[in-house]
Design brief:
It is a single chain. β4 and β5 form a beta hairpin. The chain is an alpha+beta fold. A five-stranded antiparallel beta sheet has the order 2-1-3-5-4. It is built from nine helices and five strands, in the order αααααααβββαββα. Belongs to the universal ribosomal protein uS4 family. Part of the 30S ribosomal subunit. Contacts protein S5. The interaction surface between S4 and S5 is involved in control of translational fidelity.
Length: 201
């Protein structure tokens, strides 16, 4: 399974945002990494700004280049605003929904739970993190995995009303996808229009 395994704090510092989750390093060194990180003065080009936004989206959702490009092309073929549709496709991935439901503390932890067969969709085990969910589908924790410490710790005190497009059922440890999220339902600080402009060159 292809995924990014490099240094995470360095990437978070590059973008100036905790894109992999809470990061202590970012609060201490809130400037880009490298020898000249603290006093860079050169202006970023338009292309550089667009590229940075695409990289941020890729790292945030844990998607590599080819997969990201395929999602963009799918968004282009769909009705609606391409940038918004792209974010909706990323949000509808199984690993992201597991993270949004609070079953896992980070997207990488969610990806691991999915690939280790701890997650079900409509009662059947699905071990493909990129599986695309549709409205009405139910994501649950497999019976034998409900006692896992990582899951119970993550769910403890999690605010399930944060995402109006998802509905959580505590008794069954499962969540339902009510509808495709609107752009306002997606909290990520991503300027999707810049990504569209980059790929449209």
């Amino acid at each position: 399974m292809a995924r990014y395994t490099g240094p995470k704090s360095k990437i978070a510092r590059k973008f100036g945002e905790p894109i992999f989750g809470a990061d202590k390093v970012l609060s201490k060194k809130n400037y880009p990494p490298g020898q000249h990180g603290n006093n860079r003065r050169h202006k970023t080009s338009e292309y550089g700004t667009q590229l940075k936004e695409k990289q941020k989206a890729k790292y945030t959702y844990g998607v590599l280049e080819r997969q990201f490009r395929n999602l963009f092309e799918k968004a282009q073929r769909s009705k609606g605003v391409t940038g918004e549709v792209l974010l909706q496709l990323l949000e509808s991935r199984l690993d992201n929904v597991v993270y949004r439901l609070g079953i896992a503390p980070t997207r990488s932890a969610a990806r691991q739970l999915v690939s280790h067969r701890h997650i079900t969709v409509d009662g059947s085990v699905v071990n493909i993190p990129s599986y695309s969910l549709k409205p009405g589908q139910i994501v649950g924790v497999r019976e034998r995995a409900k006692s896992l410490e990582v899951i119970s710790d993550s769910l403890a005190g999690f605010n399930h009303s944060k995402y109006p497009w998802l509905e959580w059922e505590e008794s069954t440890k499962s969540g339902k996808v009510l509808h495709i999220p609107e752009r306002t339902d997606i909290p990520e600080n991503i300027k999707e229009q810049l990504i569209v402009e980059l790929y449209s060159k």
